[in-house]
Amino acid sequence: MRPRGDPEDGALRRARWAITAQISVVVSLLVAVAGAIAYGILLAGQHADADRVLARTIQLGPAETPPGCVWLFTPVLHAPAGPPPAGMPLPGLAATVPSPGDVHTARRAIGAMTYTIRVENRGGVVSQAYFEEVYQIQDRSSLVFGLGVAEVLALLAAVLCGRVMAGRAIRPLADALRRQRTFVADASHELRAPLTRLHTRAQLLARRASGRDAEDLDQLVRGTRELGEVVEDLLLSAQAGDRPSLELVDLGSLAEEAVAAETVRAGQGQVRLAVTRERRPYVVQGVPTALRRVLSALLDNALGHTPPGGSIEVRLGVPDERHVELRVRDTGVGFPAADADRIFERFARGSDGDGRRFGLGLALVREVVTGHGGTIAAASRPGAGATFTLTLRRADAVSGGG
């Protein structure tokens, strides 16, 4: 049974809500755009209708009664009969049409109402027509209210549909994650018992042996222990999904252990393998088993590309007061400088056209180093070996918040 608070479950829930939110935003934007277009069309149509009514009213003159909500003013008459609304006609508008044939249209607020105003000079006679937009404003308000209701309903529908669609989209991923976790848990559980027996048997043989055999068996004991730690990490990850707790790790000691574990292999390949370090601690915060695998992968990569007679050096240093640096330098075949970043990609191919694949090990190395807040870089050129530089923050710099 998967525990509550599982990071992967949380990630799936966040992804589902993210998809729902994106669908909701898209639907809301579409409704808003459609509403804005509808409002723009209505507004343009209302203005066009008002302009036509005013132009027709001025053309007919005060002898004809204007349509409702329209007032016409000439220098001597106004229509309809009776007192006009306060503030009409506006002074100074006649100056906007100084020549015969001039027309000026504006929209002004008079009192609490908005009016469309047309001023026209017809043969030297300036007429002003006012269109009260009370019903147009009511129509626009009704449209805005309707669009707001439609927006809310569309948003609710989008959230519901988005949840359903997001659930269907994520279900295959959730199933794949569940199968992956089940496989890792089953495989780790099945490997634990034989590895424990192998480790115990190696310990018994190491106690009985002496001389060179004892040293080799000690290496075997350390190797089986490291493999057991890897299996335990996988099992813990599959069961709980929590990040392992960070510990104080002496990177120098890990480097010496990793080099010692590869001494036999290096001797068989006639490769000189050595550690260069000062007699001082190189302490970082991390997961010991994960960092041990990083060093093992870097050494495995170097041994795999260094021909007989070559050398591999693991050098530790302190480039500044905040970091610890570890370099793995070999005299192997090297690789083109253009591949310095590509080699950390999963199953990437080289750029020199030889079809060389870099596999998975270095990609996992970068993931672990990045997870520890560090960096790793590679430098090389063909035939001149390669140097991998790992940089992690010192434990005292991390704890000090610096």
Automatic annotation (TrEMBL):
Gene3D superfamilies: 1.10.287.130, Histidine kinase-like ATPase, C-terminal domain. The keyword Nucleotide-binding does not apply. It is found in: Cell membrane. Pfam families: HATPase_c, HisKA. Its EC number is 2.7.13.3. GO terms for molecular function: phosphorelay sensor kinase activity. Keywords: Kinase, Membrane, Phosphoprotein, Transferase, Transmembrane, Transmembrane helix, Two-component regulatory system. The chain crosses the membrane at residues 21-42, 143-162. One of its GO terms (cellular component) is plasma membrane. PROSITE patterns: HIS_KIN. Signal peptide: none annotated. It comes from the Bacteria. Residues 186-396 form the Histidine kinase domain. It catalyses: ATP + protein L-histidine = ADP + protein N-phospho-L-histidine. Its main location: membrane. This is histidine kinase. The lineage of its organism: Bacteria, Bacillati, Actinomycetota, Actinomycetes, Pseudonocardiales.
